[in-house]
Amino acid sequence: MSVEIKIVRKNIKYIRVSATTETLLVSAPKYLSERDILATVREHEAELLKLIEKERSKKYVNNIGAGEIYLFGELLEPEISKTLTSEVKVEKFYREKLEEVLKSIFLEFNNMTGLVQDEYKIRKMKARWGTCYPTKKLININLFLAKRPIDEIKLVVLHELVHLKHPNHSKDFYSEIAKYIENYREVQRRLKE
């Protein structure tokens, strides 16, 4: 198994396993030997790998070496992903694809809301999906939003556009968002996972 396995011994009766995108966390009874714990993990390897894949798909984590690259919430076809052999190539690909999608999403919400930015930029950001500078009418969109499903991208665009009218997160701000995306809370929850 090519993932990190962390073993934590506890006062429990049975082995419990949880997963992150890169690690299996094995909670095991104090009395079990490491050999027995690892034997149990190997015995259930297929199921545990599925658990990790499930976590990765929730987070849209790319594994470039394995050809697993997400675009708009879906794994790319192998013939496309095998051409994207470095982070630089993936980022260039994301920028092109996100630009295509953002043009139509911004146009859709500009027409729907009457709110229009002067400019939007695609940037690599670590902590936010988007930012808005209302006085400049400038919106920045995170490059890695290209991994996420279209409904999540639409919510980020609308969220930032509504900041042109309501520069805070007031009740009026969320009421404005709800006019255009009724299930925004559910989409927002997925974005925060």
Automatic annotation (TrEMBL):
Supply the name of the protein: YgjP-like metallopeptidase domain-containing protein
User: What Pfam families does the record point to?
Assistant: YgjP-like (PF01863)
Q: YgjP-like metallopeptidase domain: from which residue to which, for each copy?
A: 84-193
Biological source species = Anaerosphaera aminiphila DSM 21120
Organism lineage string: Bacteria, Bacillati, Bacillota, Tissierellia, Tissierellales
Show the InterPro entries listed in the entry: UTP_pyrophosphatase-like, YgjP-like_metallopeptidase
